[in-house]
């Protein structure tokens, strides 16, 4: 039944853990639509045949609907629509709530390509490799205009905005290759801003990741070689440490908990900071990035707005590397090696 | 509108007052007219012209999409073309189509007024419309915009094309819409005939009134949004640029705060037309008059609180998504109320299947299916897959072309004798109607499936597995195009050589038929006193036609 309806409705393969539930709701909604419009149509046709005009001077009685009928006109569709809403919203919340144990990948969209950066080192362009059966969270931002990350087989889509991070998660159930399409119009190359998700069997993914860590070529499958990104030197945490030194971050921020011109980075990630306007912010990827790009917007209480903006001075991977570096500075679990994938506290206060 | 010698002869000597078409036949008498009927006709001619221009762009795009790769035109031309198609169809056709053309013509007749409240302003609204159109077209010819009609920032603030004149054109067009809306509201409040209280007003007047409220309240927000983008392009203040503290999503909120209600500007008058015609051709009083009238106001009101359903995947919070999702369900209810009441109107009626009735049937089908797919799209999680795909394209074409254009054509055929006093060829009317309804389905049902399949909109090139459905859609579009050409031909022939129609060929008891067809310049020699509801068919006497002679 599922397969028949899926093919009838031209839905793509169901390759993520969302796809089947999404399609079930889709069938229910489309079938009610068909039944309702057919019912309206058949009633109209019946009335047309039964009450066709018999003479040119024909008169008709004045009829107004009783109140109960008017109520029925409201209640019946409302019941269906509200049912759709609750079924849909439950799924919507699920799709927007990444589980704790995700593997994270940073995504940057730009006209007209996708860049992926893994916390433990590798970068890639237009090809995202993930292990099948693993919850994957994408932390996405754009370097220019708005894009939208869309994989039809996964039934996932999320806009990719400049100046902030959006997130999206999925669990690819079947190994295979799936097209990434840009769904938000972004200029002349919009329709060719395509990429590919390659869902690998867990072991194959491990082998690939290991070969990446060994610094071996990432160009085994003939994908376009990237000329505009530096080969990874160490994992993101190490890169971040280097960026922090190069950019002079450590002149004002300490990494050992000592108070200085800016807040210390030790235990910063995941902390709730009181701001100068009295509100409280959870320090997450979004706030860290915002503070690099627009530091004066939300200042932690007790500090002066003296930090310059790093907009345009930090490339996407460098920003990601800094965020990873700051995240690694946790006093209760100081991690020296590469971050082990699911090391992130959930963001947005969940 | 050129009138033949034959017409003048046919009518010569008959009426004491010439009808509005013959009260001055010079070009200046048209360009300088204060007559709401002439302004309506000028709008009608303009919107039909722009409909064909916009339709031509659509056909060129569909032709390109026969092939997945580069073909026939380059990416930039394609992107400009869908932008122009959208801008022309929305701002130059759909928004003024029914209110400014038919509304102007029949609204004063329906309420027994000699004209609208501000005739001079009415004419001004036509010239503002022409100026806006001219600015927009000038921009299109000098570089064109490639942003889509939605002008999403920050692409629209950085696009290399000439976006500013096009934005300015849309900005000016908004004022035409505001002026018309203002005029109608004052007219309905102040110029109703004796005895015509609010609960006797024809349903077309109710829906046009609701539309006018939206036009006045929402259009200024669009004007602000468009102006900000223009200023942004010229001055570069960074309002939508996150690098300078701006917010790229802010534009989307402002844009949809207008553009979602604008969808109801396009569909509400269409619903008004159906409320009139379904009564006239079923020869039956409106089933649930109050329900239909108040649901128009309901749509106008709730329509302002649903804009966020365009932003489910734009990074707005999950809670906000849910709130807008739930609110969107209520707009669907008001539409459902109307649909049930229209079908109810046919119950125990005396139905005759004329060309306008064919369009009513098309309208009902397209509105129910298009409307319910709209509610489906507002079902938050389903939107994740469908958002910005051809499913959305098909959905809004079902509403805007399917429903609105069907109603436009129903209105055109129903009021054609009223406007011009001529009859068109009924057989050809039905042929064209069937062709259009068939062609429309063949065009847009494949697009629903393309959306399911995952094809994003605004794609110049597409992955090859989408080709079969694209070819099917293009074939349907060709059929649709033929249908419209047939209409132009037989209506053109009817204007030139058509026989004189009866005063009230449909036996309609709508109030606009209380005067002659075509009406004299001042509509009524004597303002009628309204004693009954519109479309009261309990007696078989035709409504007292007040003859001009």
Structural topology:
The complex is a heterodimer of chains A (350) and B (549).
Chain A: H1 2-8, H2 19-50, H3 67-95, E1 103-110, E2 113-117, E3 123-125, E4 127-131, E5 135-142, E6 147-151, E7 156-160, E8 166-171, E9 176-182, E10 195-200, H4 202-213, H5 236-246, E11 272-274, E12 280-282, H6 285-293, H7 316-328
Parallel strand pairs in A: 1-5, 4-10
Antiparallel strand pairs in A: 1-2, 2-3, 5-8, 6-7, 6-9, 9-10, 11-12
Helix pairs in contact in A: 2-3, 5-7
Chain B: H1 5-11, H2 27-31, H3 36-64, H4 75-110, H5 119-141, H6 155-158, H7 163-190, H8 203-235, H9 248-282, H10 289-302, H11 318-346, H12 355-378, H13 380-386, H14 390-420, H15 426-453, H16 467-497
Helix pairs in contact in B: 3-4, 3-5, 3-16, 4-7, 4-8, 4-9, 4-14, 5-7, 7-8, 8-9, 8-10, 9-10, 9-11, 9-12, 9-14, 10-11, 11-12, 12-14, 12-15, 14-15, 15-16
End-to-end separation of chain A: 37 Å
Number of discrete domains of chain B: 1
Q: What is the quaternary state of this protein?
A: heterodimer
Any idea how many domains of chain A? 3
The CATH superfamily name of chain B is Cytochrome c oxidase-like, subunit I domain
> What is the CATH domain class of chain B?
Mainly Alpha
Low-confidence stretches of chain A: 216-231, 333-350
By CATH, the architecture of chain B is named Up-down Bundle
**Largest interface summary:** A-B, 90 and 91 residues
Report the portion of residues of chain B in β strands: under 5%
CATH class of the largest domain in chain A: Mainly Beta
How does this structure look, described?
The complex is a heterodimer of chains A (350) and B (549). Chain A has helices at 2-8, 19-50, 67-95, 202-213, 236-246, 285-293, 316-328; strands at 103-110, 113-117, 123-125, 127-131, 135-142, 147-151, 156-160, 166-171, 176-182, 195-200, 272-274, 280-282. Chain A has 350 residues and is an alpha+beta fold. Chain A folds into three domains: 2-52 and 63-95; 103-213, Immunoglobulin-like, CATH 2.60.40.420; 236-328, Orthogonal Bundle (Cytochrome Bc1 Complex, Chain D, domain 2), CATH 1.10.760.10. Chain A is built from seven helices and twelve strands. Chain B has one domain: Cytochrome c oxidase-like, subunit I domain (Cytochrome C Oxidase, Chain A). Helix content of chain B is 66%, strand content 0%. In chain B, helix 4 runs parallel beside helix 7 (163-190), helix 11 (318-346) packs antiparallel against helix 12 and helix 14 (390-420) runs antiparallel to helix 15 (426-453). Chain B is globular and about 70 Å long. Mean pLDDT of chain B is 88; it is low at 1-15 and 545-549. Classes of the chains: A alpha+beta (350), B mainly alpha (549). Chains A and B meet through helix 2, helix 3, strand 7 and strand 9 of A and helix 4, helix 9, helix 11, helix 12 and helix 13 of B.
């Amino acid at each position: 039944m599922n397969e028949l309806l899926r093919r009838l409705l031209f839905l793509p393969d169901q390759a993520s853990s969302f796809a089947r539930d999404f399609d079930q709701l889709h069938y229910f909604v489309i079938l009610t639509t068909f039944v309702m419009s057919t019912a309206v149509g058949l009633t109209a046709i019946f009335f047309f045949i039964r009450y066709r005009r018999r003479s040119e001077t024909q008169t008709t009685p004045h009829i107004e609907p009783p109140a109960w009928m008017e109520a029925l006109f409201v209640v019946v569709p409302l019941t269906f629509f509200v049912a759709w809403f609750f079924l849909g919203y439950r799924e919507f919340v699920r799709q927007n709530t990444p589980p704790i144990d995700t593997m994270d990948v940073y995504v940057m969209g730009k006209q007209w390509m996708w860049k992926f950066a893994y916390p433990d080192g590798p970068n890639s362009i237009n090809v995202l490799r993930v292990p099948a059966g693993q919850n994957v969270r994408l932390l996405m931002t754009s370097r220019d205009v708005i894009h939208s990350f869309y994989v039809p087989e996964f039934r996932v889509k999320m806009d990719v905005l400049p100046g902030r991070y959006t997130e999206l998660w999925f669990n690819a159930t079947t190994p295979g290759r799936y097209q990434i399409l840009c769904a938000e119009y972004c200029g002349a190359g919009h329709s060719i801003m395509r990429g590919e998700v390659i869902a690998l069997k867990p072991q194959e993914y491990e082998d690939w990741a290991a070969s990446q860590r060994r610094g071996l070529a990432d160009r085994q499958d003939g994908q376009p070689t990237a000329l505009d990104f530096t080969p990874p030197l160490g994992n993101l945490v190490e890169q971040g440490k280097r960026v922090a030194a190069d950019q002079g971050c450590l002149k004002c921020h300490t990494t050992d908990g000592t108070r200085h011109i800016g807040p210390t980075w030790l235990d910063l990630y995941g902390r709730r900071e009181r701001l100068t306007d009295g509100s409280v912010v959870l320090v997450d990827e979004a706030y860290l990035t915002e503070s690099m790009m627009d530091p004066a917007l939300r200042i932690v209480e007790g500090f002066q707005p003296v930090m310059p903006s790093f907009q345009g001075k930090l490339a996407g991977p460098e920003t990601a590397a800094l965020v990873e570096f700051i995240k690694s500075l946790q006093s209760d679990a100081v991690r020296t090696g590469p971050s082990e994938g699911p090391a992130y506290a959930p963001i947005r206060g969940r | 509108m050129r009138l033949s010698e034959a017409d003048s002869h046919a009518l010569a000597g008959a009426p004491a007052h010439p009808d509005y078409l013959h009260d001055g036949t010079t070009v200046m008498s048209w360009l300088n007219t204060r007559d709401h009927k002439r302004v309506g006709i000028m709008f009608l001619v303009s919107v039909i012209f722009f409909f064909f221009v916009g339709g031509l762009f659509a056909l060129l795009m569909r032709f390109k999409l026969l092939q997945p790769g580069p073909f026939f035109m380059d990416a930039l031309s394609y992107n400009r073309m869908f932008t122009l198609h959208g801008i022309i169809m929305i701002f130059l056709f759909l928004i003024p189509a029914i209110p400014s053309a038919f509304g102007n013509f029949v609204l004063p007749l329906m309420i027994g007024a000699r004209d609208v409240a501000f005739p001079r302003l009415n004419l001004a609204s036509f010239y503002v419309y022409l100026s806006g159109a001219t600015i927009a077209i000038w921009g299109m010819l000098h570089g064109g915009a490639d942003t889509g009609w939605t002008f999403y920032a920050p692409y629209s603030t950085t696009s290399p094309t000439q976006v500013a004149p096009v934005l300015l054109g849309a900005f000016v067009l908004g004022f035409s819409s505001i002026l018309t809306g203002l005029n109608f509201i004052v007219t309905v409040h102040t110029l109703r005939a004796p005895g015509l209280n609010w609960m006797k007003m024809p349903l077309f007047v109710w829906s046009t009134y609701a539309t006018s409220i939206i036009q006045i309240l929402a259009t200024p927000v669009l004007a602000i949004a468009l102006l900000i983008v223009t200023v942004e392009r010229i001055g570069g203040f960074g309002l939508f640029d996150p690098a300078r503290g701006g917010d790229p999503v802010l534009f989307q909120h402002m844009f949809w705060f207008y553009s979602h209600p604008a969808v109801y500007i396009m569909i509400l008058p269409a619903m008004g037309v159906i409320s009139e015609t379904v009564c006239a051709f079923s020869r039956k009083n409106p089933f649930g008059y109050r329900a239909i009238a108040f649901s128009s106001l309901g749509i106008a009101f709730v329509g302002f609180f649903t804009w966020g359903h365009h932003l489910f995947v734009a990074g707005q919070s999950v809670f906000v998504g849910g709130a807008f999702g739930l609110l969107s369900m209520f707009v669907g209810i008001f539409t459902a109320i109307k649909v049930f009441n229209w079908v109810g109107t046919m119950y125990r009626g005396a139905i005759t299947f004329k060309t306008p009735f064919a369009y009513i049937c098309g309208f009902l089908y397209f509105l129910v299916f298009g409307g319910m797919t709209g509610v489906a799209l507002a079902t938050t999680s389903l939107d994740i897959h469908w958002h910005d795909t051809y499913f959305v394209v098909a959905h809004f074409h079902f509403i805007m072309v399917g429903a609105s254009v069907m109603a436009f054509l129903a209105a055109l055929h129903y009021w054609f004798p009223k406007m011009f006093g001529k009859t068109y060829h009924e057989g050809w009317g039905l042929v064209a109607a069937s062709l259009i309804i068939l062609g429309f389905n063949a065009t847009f049902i494949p697009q629903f499936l393309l959306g399911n399949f995952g094809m994003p909109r605004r794609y110049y090139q597409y992955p090859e597995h989408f080709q079969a459905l694209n070819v099917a859609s293009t074939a349907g579009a060709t059929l649709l195009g033929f249908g419209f050409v047939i209409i132009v031909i037989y209506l053109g022939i009817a204007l030139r050589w058509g026989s004189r129609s009866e005063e009230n060929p449909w036996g309609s008891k709508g109030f606009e038929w209380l005067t002659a067809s075509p009406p004299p310049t001042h509509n009524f020699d004597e303002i009628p006193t309204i004693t009954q509801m519109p479309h009261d068919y309990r007696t078989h006497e035709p409504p007292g036609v007040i003859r001009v002679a």
